[in-house]
Design brief:
single chain, 117 residues, alpha+beta, Cytidine Deaminase, domain 2, five-stranded mixed beta sheet
Amino acid sequence: MPESPEITKLAAEDEKIVVLARSARARTQAAEGAAVRDTDGRTYAASTVELPSFKITAVQAAIAAAVSSGAEGIEAAAVVSADPLVAEASVHAVRDLSESAPIFRANPAGAVEEVLR
Protein backbone atom coordinates (compact mmCIF):
# COMPACT_ATOMS: atom_id res chain seq x y z
CA MET A 1 0.00 0.00 0.00
CA PRO A 2 1.23 3.52 -0.71
CA GLU A 3 2.25 5.81 2.11
CA SER A 4 0.75 9.24 2.44
CA PRO A 5 1.59 11.60 -0.43
CA GLU A 6 3.77 13.59 1.96
CA ILE A 7 7.19 11.95 1.59
CA THR A 8 9.67 12.61 4.36
CA LYS A 9 13.38 13.08 3.70
CA LEU A 10 14.99 9.82 2.60
CA ALA A 11 17.87 8.15 4.38
CA ALA A 12 21.21 8.55 2.56
CA GLU A 13 21.19 4.91 1.39
CA ASP A 14 17.71 5.33 -0.09
CA GLU A 15 18.60 8.64 -1.73
CA LYS A 16 21.57 6.86 -3.35
CA ILE A 17 19.39 4.27 -5.10
CA VAL A 18 17.04 7.00 -6.37
CA VAL A 19 20.05 8.82 -7.86
CA LEU A 20 21.35 5.56 -9.40
CA ALA A 21 17.92 4.82 -10.90
CA ARG A 22 17.68 8.31 -12.34
CA SER A 23 21.17 8.00 -13.84
CA ALA A 24 20.38 4.61 -15.42
CA ARG A 25 17.27 6.06 -17.06
CA ALA A 26 19.11 9.15 -18.35
CA ARG A 27 22.09 7.16 -19.63
CA THR A 28 19.97 4.94 -21.85
CA GLN A 29 17.05 7.32 -22.53
CA ALA A 30 14.78 4.46 -21.38
CA ALA A 31 11.20 4.71 -20.17
CA GLU A 32 12.35 3.96 -16.64
CA GLY A 33 15.43 3.43 -14.55
CA ALA A 34 15.69 1.42 -11.35
CA ALA A 35 18.11 0.50 -8.63
CA VAL A 36 17.98 -1.98 -5.79
CA ARG A 37 20.04 -2.44 -2.64
CA ASP A 38 20.59 -6.00 -1.49
CA THR A 39 20.83 -7.20 2.10
CA ASP A 40 24.62 -6.92 1.94
CA GLY A 41 24.37 -3.23 0.97
CA ARG A 42 25.42 -3.72 -2.66
CA THR A 43 23.52 -1.74 -5.28
CA TYR A 44 22.44 -2.66 -8.79
CA ALA A 45 21.02 -0.28 -11.40
CA ALA A 46 19.32 -0.97 -14.71
CA SER A 47 16.91 0.48 -17.22
CA THR A 48 13.95 -0.85 -19.14
CA VAL A 49 14.89 -3.51 -21.70
CA GLU A 50 12.76 -3.70 -24.85
CA LEU A 51 14.03 -6.13 -27.46
CA PRO A 52 12.14 -7.99 -30.18
CA SER A 53 12.48 -11.23 -28.21
CA PHE A 54 11.61 -9.97 -24.71
CA LYS A 55 10.74 -6.97 -22.55
CA ILE A 56 11.45 -6.43 -18.85
CA THR A 57 10.97 -3.52 -16.52
CA ALA A 58 13.93 -1.65 -15.09
CA VAL A 59 13.17 -3.11 -11.65
CA GLN A 60 13.13 -6.64 -13.07
CA ALA A 61 16.48 -5.98 -14.77
CA ALA A 62 18.01 -4.62 -11.54
CA ILE A 63 16.64 -7.60 -9.57
CA ALA A 64 18.06 -9.98 -12.20
CA ALA A 65 21.49 -8.32 -11.86
CA ALA A 66 21.31 -8.62 -8.08
CA VAL A 67 20.23 -12.26 -8.07
CA SER A 68 22.80 -13.23 -10.71
CA SER A 69 25.45 -11.65 -8.46
CA GLY A 70 24.35 -13.77 -5.49
CA ALA A 71 21.92 -11.48 -3.67
CA GLU A 72 19.53 -13.38 -1.47
CA GLY A 73 17.35 -10.46 -0.44
CA ILE A 74 16.51 -6.85 -1.19
CA GLU A 75 16.43 -4.02 1.36
CA ALA A 76 14.96 -1.35 -0.95
CA ALA A 77 14.18 -0.54 -4.56
CA ALA A 78 13.74 2.70 -6.49
CA VAL A 79 12.17 3.34 -9.87
CA VAL A 80 12.32 6.60 -11.81
CA SER A 81 9.67 7.07 -14.46
CA ALA A 82 7.21 9.55 -15.89
CA ASP A 83 4.54 6.89 -15.32
CA PRO A 84 2.44 7.60 -12.21
CA LEU A 85 2.29 3.89 -11.30
CA VAL A 86 4.88 1.22 -10.58
CA ALA A 87 4.32 -1.73 -12.93
CA GLU A 88 2.81 -4.76 -11.24
CA ALA A 89 5.63 -6.93 -12.62
CA SER A 90 8.14 -4.66 -10.87
CA VAL A 91 6.36 -4.92 -7.53
CA HIS A 92 6.20 -8.72 -7.85
CA ALA A 93 9.92 -8.90 -8.64
CA VAL A 94 10.76 -7.02 -5.44
CA ARG A 95 8.28 -9.07 -3.40
CA ASP A 96 9.87 -12.30 -4.66
CA LEU A 97 12.90 -11.35 -2.54
CA SER A 98 11.34 -9.25 0.23
CA GLU A 99 7.84 -8.84 1.58
CA SER A 100 8.72 -5.57 3.30
CA ALA A 101 11.29 -3.72 1.16
CA PRO A 102 10.09 -0.23 0.31
CA ILE A 103 9.78 0.70 -3.36
CA PHE A 104 10.43 4.39 -3.97
CA ARG A 105 8.68 5.81 -7.06
CA ALA A 106 10.28 9.01 -8.28
CA ASN A 107 9.55 11.31 -11.18
CA PRO A 108 12.18 12.01 -13.87
CA ALA A 109 13.53 14.93 -11.79
CA GLY A 110 14.26 12.47 -8.97
CA ALA A 111 11.56 13.65 -6.56
CA VAL A 112 10.05 10.70 -4.69
CA GLU A 113 6.30 10.82 -5.09
CA GLU A 114 5.29 7.52 -3.51
CA VAL A 115 6.63 4.75 -1.31
CA LEU A 116 5.12 1.30 -1.72
CA ARG A 117 5.47 -0.99 1.29
